[in-house]
Design a protein that fits this description.
The chain is of the alpha+beta class. It has a single domain, classed as phage-related protein like domain (phage-related protein like fold), CATH 3.90.1690. The protein contains 9 helices and 15 strands. Strands 1, 2, 5, 12, 13 and 14 form a 6-stranded mixed sheet that branches. Helix 1 packs across helix 5. The longest helix has 28 residues. The mean pLDDT is about 90.
Length: about 300
Amino acid sequence: MKAPLLNPVLTGIATRFMAGLPLVGRRIAPIVPTQLHAAAYYIYDTSNIVDVPTNIQRAPSTGFKRLKSQLSDDTFLCKDYGIEEPIDKMELAMYANFFAADRSGMERAIRVVAINHEIRVRNLARTATQTASPSVKWNAASGTTILADIQAGKNSIRARIGVLPNLLTLPYNVYTALRDSAEMKSYLRSADGIVTKAQMESILEVEIQISGDLINTAAEGQAAAISDIWEDEAFLSYSIQSADMKSLNFARTYNWTAASGSGPAGISTFTYDQDEIDSRVVRARQFTDEKIAADGAGFYFSNVLS
């Protein structure tokens, strides 16, 4: 077996491919490149937002006042996640060239790695300490309080961290329930037709991301049980892409950037030939740890549909 080699061209394509998948994990817990495999990381303190010095006038020949961040810490340990797709040499002849075959294998492998990341981030969201379950389910024919429910979640986050959340994650089935709801339509000038995503974002005053990928949850060998990764739930969070380790974020994906890790973009692909199975092999690899950085920046809704 030849040694697996990092394929930079395929990795660049893989990064763009992964970004286009109907997943939200990288939005809720943005990639933060780190040179360290394991280290302490900052837990956000609300005082960094709300404690604003108001007497910052500088007297002549004196120094400027300085910010002092209040921080506690936890630790991350990046873990090795990966999968390989072997392509038999007999199958290679079906493709225009080796690169086309590599790309085909890469897309299947990358999707597996990305879905595993999505599940880990979803599990983090489900551990948020601020939670609620709507008394009137969001797909009820009448009497829903979707806007009020989400506003209550926003208010709870704002009270904890000092700013409003900027992201609402919805599973596809929850998104379609809101899209078709009488309440959402009632906020429009015309109550006919379907509420668009842009209109819903305007009504709820928050960016909406939809997780739409599916997974078979049945045990191996059993009849398929295909379901959404995110199901009967919704999640509000403050989530931004920032290289600042001290910035406010519900969660982060700490990504080990070493050559033997997952590279700066959060994913790496390797290719090699394995003569023992007469195949070309494509490997997708991610070396990360997903951690909550500000629990107060998340609000989890459970059992939102009837």
